[in-house]
Input
Amino acid sequence: MKKSQLNSSVFLFILILSFSVSWAALSSILEVTPGSQDFVGCLQSHSNNVTSISQVTFTSRNASFLPTWQVHVQNTRFLKPSTRKPSVIVTPVDETLVRTTLFCAKKHGYELRIRSGGHDYEGLSYTADVPFVMLDFTNMRSIDVDVANRTAWVQAGAALGALYYAISQKTDTLYFPAGVCPTVGVGGYMGGGGYGNLLRKYGTAADNVLDARFMDVNGNILDRKSMGEDLFWAIRGGGASSFGIVLAWKLRLVAVPEKVTVFLLNKTLEQGATELFHKYQTVIPAIDRNLHMRTQVFGEYIGNTTKKTVRIMFEGIYQGTTDTLLPLLDEKFPELGVTREICEEIKMVQSTLVFWGLPSSTPTEILTNRSAIAKINNKSKSDYVRKPIPISGLKKIWRKLMENDQSAFLMINPFGGRIADFSETAIPYPHRAGVLLQILKSVNFNGQASDTTPVSLRRIAWIQSLDELLTPYVSKNPREAYFNYNDLDFGVGSDNYEEASLWGERYWKRDNFKKLIRIKAKVDPLNFFRHPQSIPVFSTPLSDM
Output
């Protein structure tokens, strides 16, 4: 990527550089906290301009510190006084300051947390139990779409919504196969694999990464060729922040029709939802790859009564017209009852709005406005289903949902198709052939002051009991989980392979996890890039264990 393309804030940075102030003036602008002054001084001593550092560096005594930290805390359960915050926040506008931040963090004994969008489910990109510096890529979010070559270079701080909008401004017949939440940051998302409404047609997001700009622990900037295929393999689904700092990704754009067809319908238990979902488990993972049909499952009251039911929302997107979709469903899944009246033909970029719960008529510019997209406030867990859940099992799950206080939901995505064509070891993301469904289980803490109130604790206990109930019906040995839905309940031990395998094999399976450990030992042998579930470095080589 050209340097001008890599920096969306070049004009601002040049403007800043046109001013100069003394170190004393900097201190009045940027009041440093005890313990962070040496770090800020390190940044200043390696900068050509003191004012530029004051504009992009924040400590706890700076008025902008808390708003800068809070703005991209996407899971609001971490917005509480007890959450440990960074000693310093650095929001670089170029790669030089990224390198300097890395150097100074190492020199002064800070851990480094890297935030691109702030969607880490356990808050690991912006909180830690040790002194740390947060490298926030909010100022490095340029997007360069090349329609002729069907590629895009995207900086780490860009969000998926902005990527989709940028593509749509140049073409309606290309898109990128990623998720539907517009505020998810590109930098971390690809590092965990990434899936969305095109997974059955084109695989994961990481399957469609062509190259990267990546900074290693020594500050070297590498691309695919210079980093080598092992490291390039690792950062696409193996947790890129365990190995270094992703600066930008080069993405393969994929073909989509000018108009896609979307539909939504709800079915309750009284309307045969159990039998419909039972068939859904086998029909949809094997159906035409142009169709993706997500389901959301809720326990709720029937009208104004005290009786509860379960409602399943079927949300479909088809890469084609209504005229082609309806015969397909009439043949494969007529019981669902999709009709022409509930189908809408829209642009692909509009479908992202619809799947985020917005009307298709919403101006697509909203995808670039992170503050306009609601944040979450929840605890979530994931599972994969490899055998259809029997009706008896579904009824147990429904009963469990009806025990909840309406703070829970399940989001279920069908697999099969292109995502299953890749080997489990093609990239670290291993959830491939044989997977029927991915399940996201979630409880929210809405209406509660924190996630530690008695009501919140009951909700957490409920999701843990749901997890136990699902055990017979989900994958085994290991019980698979999605790394981008990280879950510290799995454990955080990493002193030896036995400890680390409790969570590592769930995310990546054994062969991939061991390969990730070997690569980590080569590229970051002192384990600078770490967090509670980062790829570990062992004192004894893995081959000797």
Remarks:
- The mean pLDDT is 93.
- The radius of gyration is 24 Å.
- The first strand starts at residue 57 and ends at 59.
- The first helix runs from residue 3 to 6.
